[in-house]
Design brief:
Structural class: mainly alpha
Distance between the termini: 39 Å
Radius of gyration: 23 Å
Order of helices and strands: HHHHHHHHHHHHHHHH
Number of strands: 0
Helix content: 55-70%
Length: 368
């Protein structure tokens, strides 16, 4: 018997010992999430006020300035170097320059068309996940809840002020790619994943997860398709590094590095700020983030495992390498992460039932 889902979660098939280990893992996950209460508090993605825009969206203003300079005939690398230098941004190593893909595309379009494209992509993500999740739930109400949770993850992705932000587009493309991938139907998903990498190279972590998962499943062709996207990115990055080297001067500032070592709590903090959980009290948001990851672990579907692996690898990236001012890396996986809360009720019920099975009553009847 299930609560919301059409079939039991993977926890329903655990032995009693393994189910108790899963409960212990959930307790550790909750404890780890609560460390976010002591994590650094970076500025939110957007304050929502025009007066503070230059302060809380400095990077967005930088990217918008680059796009405007290109629209007026500037070369991407020349204008990017000028804007970075003017804003006293680090210019070494070459990865401090974003890949030119997004800026070049936006420079070729009027601003209103960019906003329409952003909203259309967000709507496409909603539609793709509706189709993907519809068979998962036994009744319409929990499906509606799942879509509301998806909308909560997309809260930052429909803000027109953030249209120049690379993680916004890459995060939406990753979410769309994950929803579209099916066994034997992976080409569109792999192509969208490659596009996400060309906008923000850290999307390669997601593509790597998909390639490894396909290899483990025994689909060598699919694995090669995902790996081909990584090879394309490698070529683009080499060309990018060469172009950056031509505009950087010896005295230009270097990056302070990416060894923040802020821990899992900072990942939870980054996800809270990147989703509608920013409206909840910090302790409640931390607990819900732990439950959403547990819910994804319980969903008995290949997409669930791929999503969980993607969240895990980005959690490791942010926990180990992010600085307080790079919390926006969480936007890469923010669109879909809250959907796991829709799987959590069944996951909790199944793991508790497996960990503490009811004893069968034996009735002895004497027949004379």
């Amino acid at each position: 018997m299930t609560i919301w889902l059409a079939r039991p979660t993977r926890f329903a098939f655990l032995s009693r010992g393994r189910a108790r280990l899963a409960l212990a893992a959930l307790a550790l996950l909750l404890a780890g999430a609560l460390t976010s209460l002591a994590a650094p508090q970076p500025a939110a993605v957007a304050s929502g006020t025009t007066a503070n825009r230059a302060d809380d969206q400095a990077d967005v203003v930088l990217y918008e300035s680059i796009v405007e300079d290109i629209r007026h005939g500037g070369n991407y690398y020349a204008v990017a170097a000028e804007e970075l230098r003017e804003g006293n941004y680090p210019m070494k190593p070459f990865v401090t320059f974003r890949l030119p893909t997004l800026a070049m595309v936006q420079a070729m379009l009027p601003h209103w068309a960019v906003i329409v494209l952003l909203y259309a992509l967000a709507a496409g993500v909603m539609a793709a996940w509706f189709v993907r999740l519809r068979p998962t739930f036994a009744r319409p109400p929990p499906l509606v809840v799942a879509m509301v949770l998806l909308a909560g993850g997309l809260a930052a992705f429909v803000q027109s002020d953030l249209a120049a932000f690379h993680e916004i587009w890459a995060g939406l493309l990753i979410a769309l790619s994950l929803a579209l991938r099916r066994p034997g139907r992976w080409m569109a998903a792999a192509g969208i994943g490659a596009l996400a990498m060309l906008i923000r190279e850290t999307a390669a972590l997601y593509v790597a997860v998909m390639a490894v998962a396909a290899w483990i499943d025994g689909d060598r062709r699919e694995a090669a398709g995902w790996a081909a996207g990584v090879a394309l990115l490698a070529v683009a990055v080499v060309a990018h590094a060469y172009a950056v080297a031509a505009v950087v001067k010896p005295l230009d500032p270097s990056s302070p590095g990416w060894s923040g070592m802020l821990g899992f709590g900072f990942f939870v903090e980054a996800m809270t700020l990147s989703t509608a959980l920013r409206l909840a009290p910090a302790w409640l948001a931390a607990g819900l983030m732990a439950l959403t990851l547990f819910g994804w672990a319980g969903w008995r579907d290949a997409t669930g495992l791929r999503a969980l692996a993607t969240f895990t690898i980005y959690a490791a990236l942010i926990a180990l390498f992010a600085r307080p001012d790079t919390f926006y890396w969480g936007l890469m996986v923010a669109p879909t992460i809250l959907v796991g809360l829709a799987f959590a009720p069944d996951a909790l019920r199944d793991v508790i039932a497996a960990a503490f099975p009811k004893r069968r009553r034996i009735t002895v009847t004497r027949l004379t």
